Amino acid sequence: MIRHDVVVVGAGCAGMRAAIEAKRAGVDVAVVSKLHPTRSHSGAAEGGINAALGNATEDSPESHTFDTVKGSDYLGDQDAIAVMCHEAPGDIYELEHMGAIFTRGTDGRLAQRPFGAAGAPRTVYSADITGHVLIHVLYEQLLKHDVTVYEEFFATQLVVDGGRCAGVLAWDIVRGGLHAIEAKHTILATGGMGRMYYGTTNAYACTADGMSLAWRAGVPLKDMEFMQFHPTTLKSNGVLITEGCRGEGGYLRNADGERFMASPAPNAMELASRDVVSRAEWVEIAEGRGVDGCVLLDLTHLGAKKIKSRLPGSRELAIDYAGVDPIDEPIPVRPGAHYQMGGVDVDIWGETIVPGLFAAGEVACVSVHGANRLGGNSLMETITFGRRAGQAAAERAREEVDVHARIDRAAVRDEERRLEGILTSTEGERPWEIRDELARTMYDKAGVFRTESALLECREKVAELRERARRLRIDDKGTRFNTDLMSALELHSLLEGADCLVTGALARQESRGAHSRLDYTERDDERWMKHTLTWYDRGEVRLDYKPVTVTKYQPLVRSY
Amino acid sequence: MATIDNEHLTTLKGAYDVQLMEVSLRVQRFGGEEDSRRRYETYTVEVPTTATLLDCLDAVKDKHDGSLAYRKSCRMAVCGSCGMRLDGGAVLACKVPMRPYVDAGHVVTVAPMGNLPVVKDLVVDMQPFWHKVRAVKPWLDTSDEAPPQTEWRVAPEQQEAISKESLCIMCGCCVSECNSMEADPDFLGPAALAKAYRFVGDVRDLDTRDRLRDLNGAHGIWDCTRCYFCNQRCPKGVDPRDAIAKLGAETFREGLHDGIQTLMTDEGARHAKVFIESTYKGGYLRETELVPKTIGPLGALKEIPFALQLARAGKVPNPLMPHKAKDNAEVKRLWKLLEQQTPRHQERALRPEDVTTAKGV
Ligand SMILES: Cc1cc2nc3c(=O)[nH]c(=O)nc-3n(C[C@H](O)[C@H](O)[C@H](O)COP(=O)(O)OP(=O)(O)OC[C@H]3O[C@@H](n4cnc5c(N)ncnc54)[C@H](O)[C@@H]3O)c2cc1C
Ligand code: SF4
Ligand code: SF4
Ligand code: FES
């Protein structure tokens, strides 16, 4: 048996930041991750991370708070948003002192770029590889602090014993075998769930594992219907083409060559907010004015020189994955599932309602993003709330000298039997078949636009797929590096996450932020300014609600 | 239920229409301890014309054999998971479009990376790789522990010094093809050394001297054979060999200011040191000093038979009257010039406490 004071599940920005903080506080910490830490999807973030440093122009945490509240379409909890926006500058300075290589201004200070819906240039960045820089600097600190890492260990189950989380069961991917990892406090930091959509910017590993772990452990998932779509992703593999292309002057055109943003956003045009652009594109394509299921991101008028010097990364991605050189031809793009605003319901210290269980990062919903996340705010969330969860868990672990988390042998044996069942099954479907069907269903029926009838169809399909997934058959019967087994486990998480998403979406009869209903086109504060909670109820989803925390800012119409 | 007239808007037209092509690939299979025979299997899959090597492997895994093992995550060449060999050279599987191979009618061969033990199929054990990264103390060494009040001041040009090294995604493609590592598995290798330079070249780091001393030790920078395979194979343009050259230059630079190259203790380093010293003294390399000064007088004794053999062939210059440049003063002037032109190790970053007052003015 393995035992630690604090165990962090997930090693992206949130997980590593939490582990570093807990270790500094002097407790015994370990990280469990299905990927080597630097392989986490945080590394793919390009644009940057928001903090009101005021390096470019005057700025304040207060103004960052207001922009975020408004951006959230008033579904964000204002106490949580204020915490993040006020602590962000200190967290950024700390990252810089850890060694983060951020882009500098000529005065040697951290440069800050303007980002959508922000009142000041507030986004700290590192060219177009901000996430990469963060993931590596945090990994360096993890090594410096000598944190134990169970690398390529897949968490399959949280163990709740006597109402308290006692740790996690994890499968050793490389060598095979299930391990019980006992912890006084467990922090989930497993990232997002974009993979349930056919078109997504997310990595293969973003499969809702943490949401499903927490849900099955009795923690409600909050606001799961709010999935942000990014307007410019490649058709072939969903890879994100940065907003920078439009920032540099790129146009969006339909099949007739028209700049269709002129009608929904005559002023902002291509630079309107993500949800607005995604919806406009979706209309063009769905009404038959698209090109091969896409609209066209046209950079040709920018010229070879500008494209090569300012957008080399995007050009490379377009050449590699779309077979198109943007110097000569426009890039076909379409909206793709990008960021899950909802997640495991936690308070401003990352604590869930189950004692001993915390969550931070994209898996969690504090909630700072509400119905719509602003670009650059989620990396900040991983750092600030990762740190806070690490600190809180460590403090608890130190105080609770007489708490001894114990994982019962029987729990391990049950889980071993479940995995054995998948390994030895000779009938049923292969996981990928169901996964592909789910991804298409979600993209078609719970995408950028939703209606009651589409969502009903979607929920029915998800239920059918969940039923079919009870009998899975995998080819790989071995225990060594069995990624077939992993994909079976991930499929269950995806299906459970999808069920919560679609149940919440069906119930929410309004349009707010990323949740856009064609049959209820207005925001309805009277009925719906509240958080959706989806609970586990004998395998099914039970709906519930809780109020939004409002401190200073009363809801206004969100217009830019 | 409300009926609406724009129900059709929920679903994208043509979302799944793709052009397909057929790709064949020979893949090395290896079952690990359970089945230690290495064998090749050829698969033919139907994939979109935009498919990468990784997409093809996914198609093999889904449609042919779910037991095929390989690593993947980001599928956009940033996470460093999917390093493997394509026709004998390391690539990121997610960064190789397959269309050109299909057009050329070529069946590619896919195998795991080199210089690392194979776990199963295309999966290698990365532990030896990470051990070496860890060995270079890969974290910024600054003296401050208290929470900072502001950032360090670093000029963009100063930061530019490590811009290439900061691109490394730790994929191992360079290590896979490293010539020197084949001969000396303990050689720190291109990725770890590029990481080391990322700190040596960082003006905020306070540990330059100690880092350089370590890197000049056994299995360090002087073990590199300069084959440039790492530069060639790196998918991110890090150019690790250039980083190694910069570490060598930093070593000389630190050493120059001491008068002697005290940092250079390893055999490879001493070898390089003879080049500096003897060109300084006489404008030429003194070959006869090379061996004793590199491997020491005792070791040199053992090389005497070889030296005599060389002498018989007329390949040994007169040890008592080494070549000397005609105008050695000119050589010394050149050295001086070089020394003046070589900046001392770059100006340090401004400490935050020195700039707090300046901030916000
Ligand atoms: C392409 C792209 C660009 C983006 N750009 C920006 C940007 O510019 N600015 C911004 O603020 N945000 C951006 N975002 C969003 C932001 O990057 C993510 O929300 C954030 O990085 C998530 O971090 P995380 O630590 O929560 O999760 P991740 O980094 O996804 O890490 C999840 C970790 O959990 C582990 N894990 C998962 N499941 C299991 C399991 N079952 N067992 C064990 N371990 C598990 C994984 O191995 C991994 O280590 C972007 C997102 C994408 C996809
Ligand atoms: S140049 Fe040096 S480090 Fe690079 S591959 Fe060759 S021997 Fe290895
Ligand atoms: S130097 Fe290049 S090839 Fe080597 S690990 Fe880094 S990114 Fe990969
Ligand atoms: S899958 Fe991430 S680099 Fe290829």
UniProtKB/TrEMBL annotation, chain A:
InterPro entries: FAD-dep_OxRdtase_2_FAD-bd (IPR003953), FAD/NAD-bd_sf (IPR036188), FRD_SDH_FAD_BS (IPR003952), Fum_R/Succ_DH_flav-like_C_sf (IPR037099), Fum_Rdtase/Succ_DH_flav-like_C (IPR015939), SdhA/FrdA/AprA (IPR030664), Succ_DH/fumarate_Rdtase_cat_sf (IPR027477), Succ_Dhase_FrdA_Gneg (IPR014006). The active site is at residue 274. The keyword Protein biosynthesis does not apply. One of its GO terms (molecular function) is succinate dehydrogenase (quinone) activity. Residues 435-560 form the Fumarate reductase/succinate dehydrogenase flavoprotein-like C-terminal domain. It holds the Pfam family Succ_DH_flav_C. Substrate binds at residues 230, 242, 338, 373. It is a peripheral membrane protein. Residues 5-379 form the FAD-dependent oxidoreductase 2 FAD-binding domain. FAD binds at residues 10-15, 33-48, 209, 362, 378-379. Gene3D superfamilies: FAD/NAD(P)-binding domain (3.50.50.60), Fumarate reductase/succinate dehydrogenase flavoprotein-like, C-terminal domain (1.20.58.100), succinate dehydrogenase protein domain (4.10.80.40), Succinate dehydrogenase/fumarate reductase flavoprotein, catalytic domain (3.90.700.10). Its EC number is 1.3.5.1. It catalyses: a quinone + succinate = fumarate + a quinol. Pathway: Carbohydrate metabolism; tricarboxylic acid cycle; fumarate from succinate (bacterial route): step 1/1. It is found in: Membrane. GO terms for cellular component: plasma membrane. Keywords: Electron transport, FAD, Flavoprotein, Membrane, Oxidoreductase, Transport. PROSITE patterns: FRD_SDH_FAD_BINDING. Its cofactor is FAD. It is an enzyme of class 1 (oxidoreductase). One of its GO terms (biological process) is electron transport chain. Belongs to the FAD-dependent oxidoreductase 2 family. FRD/SDH subfamily. This is Succinate dehydrogenase flavoprotein subunit.
UniProtKB/TrEMBL annotation, chain B:
The lineage of its organism: Bacteria, Bacillati, Actinomycetota, Thermoleophilia, environmental samples. Its EC number is 1.3.5.1. It comes from uncultured Thermoleophilia bacterium. Residues 21-114 form the 2Fe-2S ferredoxin-type domain. One of its GO terms (biological process) is respiratory electron transport chain. Residues 342-361 are annotated as: Disordered. Pathway: Carbohydrate metabolism; tricarboxylic acid cycle. NCBIfam families: dhsB, PRK05950.1. Its cofactor is [4Fe-4S] cluster; [2Fe-2S] cluster; [3Fe-4S] cluster. This is succinate dehydrogenase. Keywords: 2Fe-2S, 3Fe-4S, 4Fe-4S, Iron, Iron-sulfur, Metal-binding, Oxidoreductase, Tricarboxylic acid cycle.
